[in-house]
Amino acid sequence: MAFQPHPLADRRRRSAAALIKQLLSIKSSEVLPEHVRELIDCLLWKITEADGKTNTRFKTSGALGCTDNKLLRHEHVYQKNKMIDALVKCAPGAVDGVLVEAVGCLVTVDEHLRLNKFDSDYGWERYRKAGLHVIDLTTMKRKV
To answer: Labelling 25: which of 8, 34, 108, 134 has CA 20 to 30 A away?
Structure first.
């Protein structure tokens, strides 16, 4: 089961990234910071789901073996709240460096709960600590 990117995935990611940059550039007392954060949150979903909610490049071995979509979760490898914190603090030229971490991984519900125990960690380290095996479906090799 090799990964097949959505034909519009790159365009979707570029669009969401452009909108994030526009939001971060707004300097108006009329714009509430919490609204900017909420909109960036939504746009991070758009980036990680550019290929589809369950059509992710990275999947755990548990997700690969699961036949019931109700038992699967689209997980943000790098937690959105931490990414948003980094985005609102970074210089305009550093936004793309933060957005490269907008990566989705399909996990099972049980694995999602295991990952929640390691929220103080960031990115793939959470998966290592939770003991999850992640497969990169473009290479069919283990990522974690």
So the answer is: 8
Structure-block tokens of residue 85? 């914190």
Torsional class of 131: left (φ above 0), alpha (ψ -120 to 50), beta (otherwise)? left
Residue 1 within a domain:
no
Q: Does residue 32 sit within a domain? A: yes
Give the chain's domain count.
Answer: 1
Q: CA–CA separation, 69 vs 5, rounded Å?
A: 19
| Amino acid, res. 37 | R
Tell me the C-alpha distance between 53 and 93, whole Å: 29
CA distance 136 to 35: 34
| Residue 16 lies in domain | 9-142
